[in-house]
Design brief:
This protein has 361 residues and is of the alpha/beta class. It is built from eleven helices and nine strands. Strands 1-4-3-2-5-8-7-9-6 form a nine-stranded mixed beta sheet, with helices on both faces. Helix 2 links the parallel strand 2 and strand 3. Helix 1 packs across helix 9 and helix 9 crosses helix 11. The relative contact order is 0.15.
Length: 361
């Protein structure tokens, strides 16, 4: 059996094969009043890209977030920050679009501000929001993606449960997927419903996290905000390793699963790289728990067999997890090989053509 010390050396090797991110081209340019000092506040960050800014779904979500935060404001102060990431030279045009959007979203119960940031990568916008939350003395950071749909009362349920949790913690909405209109997406959706991959903790498409958990910022090296939060709060070896990570029943969000064949395979490949890097940078005990009980639960004999829904379904899960593990092994082996020669693997394509894990477009 491989010893923890050797495993830790392998983790470092794998991590060194992943490319280091570049810094943003410039500091964020703020539009509107910045959040004032407000102890106990909830600061929500909603990053988006210039190509999605005028998308009807993204616009509708921004209005729904403001409406739900207005209900939250009766219990504690709430502030929404919109982060617009781009690679445009037209800073003035971007400012005018943000000013118009802030005017359209104006709500007396909720403070709203925005910034533009000339770079790609959601975590850069998240780190701007973390710095703002630290500056104003907020209690929690609400992380949102711009491609989800919120169920009624979702954010209020998160805030209420957040106030009852031990500190520090993270609470998240239950994700309800619906497949994209393609064979690849429908197949992926059915496989995910059978295997339930690493979904039993808050995901950053809609999660409220204690500021203490993310203080100082998240590492853009990971390209995964929820993975970093999960490992910071995971407590292996305790009676309840996931006690500080809770999904809140009744708080739901919906998202689209998959795309075409090419995009779906690219997305799966990048997600495997994310899992590998998060585990490589984590303490050995945390990485081992994540592998056995979250990412590859059911992959007997490397992880416990899952008979909770009967032996036949457990065998089906084992078969799919086995294929997934073979792919994961190739990813880890390639990262380790590049790390051994002190090189990085370069860009890893994301779901759509032309997007990459490094740029996180």
């Amino acid at each position: 059996m491989t010893t923890p010390a050797v495993r830790t050396a392998l983790q470092r090797l794998v991590a060194s094969g992943w490319p280091q991110p570049g810094a943003p081209a410039a500091a964020p340019l703020w539009v509107g009043a910045r959040p004032p000092a407000s102890r106990g506040a909830i600061l929500a960050i909603l990053p988006t890209m210039l190509s999605r800014f005028d998308d009807p779904g993204a616009r509708l979500l921004r209005r729904e977030v403001v409406a739900q935060l207005a209900a939250v404001a009766a219990e504690r102060p709430a502030w929404l920050v919109i982060g617009l990431q781009h690679d445009s030279d037209d800073e003035q045009g971007i400012r005018l679009r943000l000013e118009a959007e802030l005017e359209a979203l104006r709500c007396p119960q909720v403070g709203i501000s925005a910034f533009s940031l000339r770079c790609w990568g959601k975590l850069y916008s998240t780190n701007v929001a973390i710095a703002e939350a630290e500056r104003i003395g907020a209690d929690g950071l609400l992380l949102l993606d711009d491609d989800i749909t919120l169920a009624p009362d979702c954010l209020a349920r998160l805030v209420r449960q957040f106030g009852q949790m031990p500190y520090p913690c993270a609470v998240g909405a239950v994700k309800r997927g619906r497949p994209y209109d393609s064979r690849a997406a429908r197949l992926l959706f059915r496989m995910k419903s059978l295997t339930r991959p690493a979904m039993n903790y808050p995901h950053a498409c809609c999660a409220l996290v204690s500021l203490e958990v993310v203080r100082g910022g998240l590492s853009p090296h990971h390209h995964s905000d929820d993975g970093q939060i999960c490992f910071r709060l995971l407590r292996p070896g305790t009676p309840e390793p996931l006690a500080a990570l809770r999904l809140i029943e009744g708080a739901e969000c919906q998202h689209v699963v998959g795309s075409g064949w090419r995009g779906t395979l690219r997305r799966l490949n990048r997600m495997l790289h994310h899992h590998a890097i998060c585990m490589a940078d984590a303490p050995y005990d945390s990485a081992r728990f994540y592998f056995r009980h979250m990412l590859f639960h059911g992959l007997w004999p490397l992880a416990p067999f899952d008979s909770s829904h009967g032996i036949p379904r457990g065998m089906g899960k084992l078969a799919i997890k086995g294929i997934y593990f073979l792919w994961f092994s190739v990813v880890v082996g390639r990262l380790a090989l590049f790390g051994a020669v002190r090189q990085s693997i370069g860009e890893v394509a994301w779901g759509s053509a032309g997007s990459t894990a490094v740029s996180d477009k």
